Amino acid sequence: MSDASHRTPTAKGLEFLGAVAGGLVHEIRNPLSTMNVTLQLLQEDWPEGAEDARGQRSSRRLTSLLGEVKRLEEILDDFLRYAGIRRLNLSRVDLNRVLEEVTGFVLPECTRAGVDLAFYPDRSLPIMRVDERLVKQAVLNLILNALQAMEGKEGDGRGEAQLIVRTRLEGEGARIDVIDTGPGIPEGIREKVWEVYYSRKKTGSGLGLPTARRIAEEHGGGLTFETEVDKGTDFILRLPLTGPPDEPA
Ligand SMILES: Nc1ncnc2c1ncn2[C@@H]1O[C@H](COP(=O)(O)OP(=O)(O)O)[C@@H](O)[C@H]1O
Ligand SMILES: [Mg+2]
Predict the structure, then answer these.
(1) What residue segments make up the domains of the chain, in order of their start?
(2) What residues pack around ion ligand 2 (CB closer than 5 A)?
(3) Would you state the pLDDT for residue 85?
(4) What fold, for 91-240?
(5) Ligand approaching nearest to the C-alpha of 199
(6) Which of 86, 165, 176, 191 could form a disulfide with 80 if both were Cys (CB 3.0 to 4.6 A apart)?
(7) 13-72 residue pLDDT tens
């Protein structure tokens, strides 16, 4: 995927790529493992070394099918590794610099939407150990949600649309806030928003938040939000400074 980096992807494109890697592969794996188990059960009904020709044929075909299912599972595993979701590609990263890039990237879109974008970095943040590409992806998902939540807010007389991205040193970790002055998340759907494929948008993938949360958790961090209806939402992404706890430093 690094070969394609000279082509400037759109924010939507990046979100889509991450969503495909995280969500689609996961969705394909479940029915595949059901097929795997079912084929193994069928194999018990058609054991190898059957007497009759029909039994031998069926056994051979089942073995071949099982091999193909296994192969598909391997391809998906490889893709997940390739996409960097499963194995983190950790390096020493200046989180503020990364967020500077992400906010710079979405600035034209914010301007176009009449959204006031501000970035407040905590300069005391040390260099961290994270997967830069994935952290970018997670924050971008949150920023796009904030932006989309405020779309059309301009004309409604309720005041300015503001998007604030902020970093802070918090204990042994970094805390990133993505704050919007959008409509907030109504009480009834506050759990649902984490569900894969849950979306209230006409063309939403429903993968932005689950993907961002998984990326945070794979770093040993987490993603939560605070929200107030008609006031706005604050998504809080936490990352440990030294990478996932189970990884050697
Ligand atoms: N900042 C936000 N303000 C209000 N609602 C939000 C915000 N972020 C996410 N949501 C809600 O959570 C849902 C799921 O978000 P997400 O997983 O990113 O999928 P998508 O953006 O494709 O709908 C959104 O459809 C929206 O209803
Ligand atoms: Mg989204």
Answers:
(1) 2-82, 91-240
(2) 145, 208
(3) 56
(4) Heat Shock Protein 90 (3.30.565)
(5) 1
(6) 86
(7) 655 676 677 678 878 988 999 999 999 999 999 888 888 999 999 999 999 999 999 888
DSSP letter string, 198-234: ---STT--S-HHHHHHHHHHHTT-EEEEEEETTTEEE
**What confidence tens digit (pLDDT) does each residue in 100-153 have?**
999 999 999 999 999 999 999 999 999 999 999 889 989 999 999 999 999 876
Please tell me the distance between residue 200's alpha carbon and the centre of ligand 2 in angstroms.
10
Query: What does the block give as tokens for 231?
Result: 């006031």
Distance (Å) of CA 118 to CA 10, 99, 110, 125, 246 = 20, 11, 10, 18, 35
Among residues 171, 142, 102, the alpha carbon closest in space to that of 237 is found at: 142
Rounded to whole angstroms, the maximal C-alpha distance in the chain is: 81
pTM over 0.90: no
Probe ligand 1: pick from 20, 209, 224, max atoms within 8 Å of CB? 209
Residue type for 5, please? Answer: S
Ligand 1 center to residue 130 CA distance, Å? Answer: 25
Residues with CB under 6 A from ligand 1: 141, 145-146, 149, 180, 182, 185, 193, 198-201, 204-209, 233
